[in-house]
Amino acid sequence: MPSAKADDGYRLWLRYELVNNSTLLSNYRNAVTSVYLPGTSPSLLAAKDELQMGLEGLLGKKVSFQNTLANAQLVVGTPASSSQIAALPLSNQLSKAGDEGFVIVSTTRSQKKIIAIAANTDIGVLYGVFHFLRLMQTQQNIQHLAVTSAPKTKYRLIDHWDNLNRTVERGYAGFSIWNWHTLPRYIDQRYIDYARANASIGINGVVVTNVNANALILTKEYLEKVAALANVFRPYGIKIYLTGRFSAPIEIGKLKTADPLNAEVRQWWKNKIDEIYTNIPDFGGFLIKANSEGQPGPQDYKRTHADGANMFAEALAPHKGIVMWRAFVYSNESPEDRLKQAYAEFKPLDGKFNNNVAIQVKNGPLDFQPREPFSPLFGAMPKTPLFIEYQLTQEYLGFSTHLVFMAPLFKEVLNADTYEKGKGSTVAKVLDGSLDGQALTGMAGVANIGNDINWTGHPFGQANWYTLGRLAWDHQLSSAQIANEWVRQTFGNSKPLVDTVEKMMLSSREAMVNYMTPLGLHHIMGYGHHYGPAPWFDKASRADWNPVYFHKADSIGIGFDRTANGTNYLSQYAPEVRKQFEDINTCPEEYLLWFHHVSWKHTMKSGRNLWEELCYRYYAGVDSVRVMQKEWNSLEKLVDKQRFNQVKMLLAVQEKEAVWWRNSCLLYFQTFSKMPIPPSYEKPDQTLEYYKNLNFPFAPGNGR
Amino acid sequence: MPSAKADDGYRLWLRYELVNNSTLLSNYRNAVTSVYLPGTSPSLLAAKDELQMGLEGLLGKKVSFQNTLANAQLVVGTPASSSQIAALPLSNQLSKAGDEGFVIVSTTRSQKKIIAIAANTDIGVLYGVFHFLRLMQTQQNIQHLAVTSAPKTKYRLIDHWDNLNRTVERGYAGFSIWNWHTLPRYIDQRYIDYARANASIGINGVVVTNVNANALILTKEYLEKVAALANVFRPYGIKIYLTGRFSAPIEIGKLKTADPLNAEVRQWWKNKIDEIYTNIPDFGGFLIKANSEGQPGPQDYKRTHADGANMFAEALAPHKGIVMWRAFVYSNESPEDRLKQAYAEFKPLDGKFNNNVAIQVKNGPLDFQPREPFSPLFGAMPKTPLFIEYQLTQEYLGFSTHLVFMAPLFKEVLNADTYEKGKGSTVAKVLDGSLDGQALTGMAGVANIGNDINWTGHPFGQANWYTLGRLAWDHQLSSAQIANEWVRQTFGNSKPLVDTVEKMMLSSREAMVNYMTPLGLHHIMGYGHHYGPAPWFDKASRADWNPVYFHKADSIGIGFDRTANGTNYLSQYAPEVRKQFEDINTCPEEYLLWFHHVSWKHTMKSGRNLWEELCYRYYAGVDSVRVMQKEWNSLEKLVDKQRFNQVKMLLAVQEKEAVWWRNSCLLYFQTFSKMPIPPSYEKPDQTLEYYKNLNFPFAPGNGR
User: Fold this and answer.
1) Is B640 among the residues known to form the active site?
2) pLDDT in tens, B257-295
3) Cβ-nearest to A453 among B54, B164, B453
4) Cα–Cα distances in Å, from B605 out to A240, B589, B640, B678?
5) Residues B10, A4: C-beta atoms closer than 8 Å
6) Which CATH architecture has domain A22-149?
7) Is the pTM value of this prediction over 0.95?
8) Which helix or strand (DSSP H or E) is residue A442 part of?
């Protein structure tokens, strides 16, 4: 079919292209000649629609939906929706599948060979259908299926930082997909396809508004709009959440205070929350950023985060709603090491939160840097459910022009050992509730989604959205496994294509760390917009918004001493963790400058001194990008023209910006180290002054 | 092919779907079995690509490109690019085709039956190719072709009001398609498809930035980005233009003044313009808004518009660039009838502008209202080239949720008689240069284009973009003809579909006039954002931004007396025009309240009094929308599901908003007329207070 645009990326990983392996195609066609899917609930109808579209695309023919059992049939449903499913001996598996999981088995019923997709709930059925379609999209054998799958975390969330005027704070893929002006009456097809995409990876909750919240979202007019979105999402098992502006009782409620212990305030929120549930019976709850970066909060009234969170929790509890209270706090006034502040504020509150409150903790102690150690709050609040917050949008990771696959970053944190209950107390076990017996478990990703046709700007940004969903479902999936299945669905199944792209993806995060912030450097990006490097910047109104605060380069060395000799941030970790990081000889070099101020002449494991190692890493980072360029270019014949060219252009931008990071950081740090860049390396082609004078008044994502 | 999105509208009118009439398909296949298109210029390659894509889609098979003449061949080129074209006896027709036109003939050459697409220039060839594809898309007979076509205006322009942060002033289809951040290195496929769409309708110039201009676009960094766009557009015959911030010499040039008679300032602009041409050798020139709504301009230095425009003109002339100087001016301080101010400022300057300056005049004297009389500047400046500026984006016409086809509005102005040189001195003749012998001729439309997938938000918004191009090429095309060819290309050729949609389109503008501003009402919309009705509004900082200034309703009647008894605005027209408008008995009723303060009891042609007529019109407007809804619903089986549902939802919004306009305007005006809404009409279901209290803090298009 001719088109002006080849593959524009809109379909994400749900492309359902004809299976291009003829043996497999024939196997698939033989295995699924019809579908038996009774039931008319919205989720079952969504499952039916998806199967219709998916099978027609993958098999290249219409597959009939029948009302009687037949050979080579896909039999789909719950014991309640389908007597055929009810009659299958699946109770063991189904009990493991739980409320949202599913069972897929190749079996026989009344002498017919069938594949059953079974679940306890309609949404479980839909998840099973997406899983089955994924098997075919990734060209797996479907002859002897015996799958039982259940999600490891209960709340699997995408958080949008979308403003009501459609700007997106830290958004780099266009503007908000929520067109509030035309809601509730105009339902953009995107809303539906967004829900499909999320359901296909198990996302079951969406926070639609920015954590830097606007109270107007809670007015009657906007709640009607939110309800219209909730109606679109409901069949796909997705609940809607809002961000709660703590001062809303003043701003839209005409009260004089927002004190969480004030009876009028509490009543106002109770009424407001009841009103929300009248519009949206399955409303999920609130995500709240309070007393952080200028946002209002309970501390404005000398109350604690627990006082604030519990006020919401009480009003939400009768409706089964939850509060996600963000631990990303640091005070405007405090001279304390910024990294220590979240722990200092929240650790004492462990056990003080109502049981429908979760504390949402960023993966690291700072703010979504290319590499951070895990947040010390993980492992420090055994009596409190903790959700993890990752950032899919690449605020610090090259916006939407850098290819970086985040699964290795996410996994690094999940696999980190908190030693809360001895060895093996991983962050993953904190999150899935198994370590402390928590029932409220969750994983959230800050959306990298905008109204660009392909949703994420960079075609590979889609992989990070995909990863979040897959890991929230099953944090034991490996990065390679996720990359592999994403590539197959998104680009195709040919071996050189899959192998090469998987390799690119798996190396991409370490490449970025190297060309941006090697060896534990952090927060040395441009001010405000966070675009590009600015390690020299020292003009921010707050000390801890300045790169110089974080790298502390001087004539002796570089790095932030957070040992007992310094800010003693390391005391917030379990002794085993602390010990490893505190000793400069056991501290992994990738975290070195997070924790130590290290002499330029310090000998690294490579035998190079610190300065030479820094040079080595920055140059290696750029080299890795150049390798990715070559790898990508080798795929020209295997990728559709539009996306091939897109990624090629983007890699060229990435290479250019990697050089910019390398040159400007090294030239700047050289003013302290006074040592030469080894002559074997290509010479920076611009001066430090040149880089310092670059200005980006309209860099995207400032939320204006 | 399965897809998550059916027809998403991205392809605009260039869909190239398989011809669904089997007789015609067979005729077309027989007539075009191969293409002979030698040449490798960028425009010829674009023509080749388009033919490849178009023919493959329309004919459902690959058509081969050959290097020798053959029977049933499409022979394409210029006498210079193709010896076969050179050998055809087409010199008469080609001389009529001029620089941009083309000739398409069915003919015979060396005993082969061929269709020749010939032109004097490569861009003429591309235009001819688009015309030929249009013939097939609209299912015309191509057996005896004898087309000679040349554009009637020389500059055919789309003006974007796009800001550097990607907000679009008065944009309702998402945000700017120009991603300045990722330019110049990342070339979005949209830029190419945008150029294709424009070339297909003869648009040959694009102003990419807002008339409320930012000087930064003229900095080196941004000029590189602009040059990258110019490179994309060049093969499609499209020149790029910028808006010129008059105070740029101060803001980015570090001068103390922007006085157009200051030698340093003149030199600064000359250097800047030379620099632009170094980057963009075919740069088109500047569009300038000066001394209007707070923009800087020559009057800041007590100079005239001519002084300002000529400064730019002088610097542009060596490069063949032009200045489009906007006549949309009205002073912040002047108590004069706002409608009179443009004429008052510009008429005395007739003959004072350099010959590469055109004055760009909005179609009417106010600001793109649903209906305005033609601007009195048309017919008043015989020594000055005048371009017309239409507004495609629906600032005052229901944003992107109302279906309104603008061809009737555009044609109404084109057909208006200025009487400049006696009867028949139409605006069209002013514009095409024939009335006053102008060589510099042009027509511009303010873009309704954004980064919504379908470009214009409302699928029918595409028709207005299409119309602008077609009318700029040939202002004699009728509204019906344009509607007909657009529907066929955009939705399909089935007769009930074409007939019904054409009917809807042709009635839509009058419907809107009726439910918004019947009988010559104007400027009674919401303040600032211009969304919805607010005839009661009187709080603007300037009198002439207030609806009450324009409708002047009181206990006696309603309307603005612009006769000799009032502001005498009518004196700016030729006596013949003035006479017709000035006499309340000959003034066409659709312009009545533009020119007269009319008693509520005045008897209208219908026999109803003015109040009753007002009621009648407002109710008729809503009724027309309801008729459109029924008509559209009848097409469910003939339109793809996605666009059918889109338009259905949008018509429901339009109906709701039409009722809002009707009710709130009538309830408000009733407070003056003190007469009842006839009881046979449905009663307003809300009170005036309800409507007055509506607030839209995030209405789109405010450019923030």
Assistant:
1) no
2) 999 999 999 999 999 999 999 999 999 999 999 999 999
3) B453
4) 56, 8, 44, 18
5) yes
6) 2-Layer Sandwich (3.30)
7) yes
8) strand A442-446
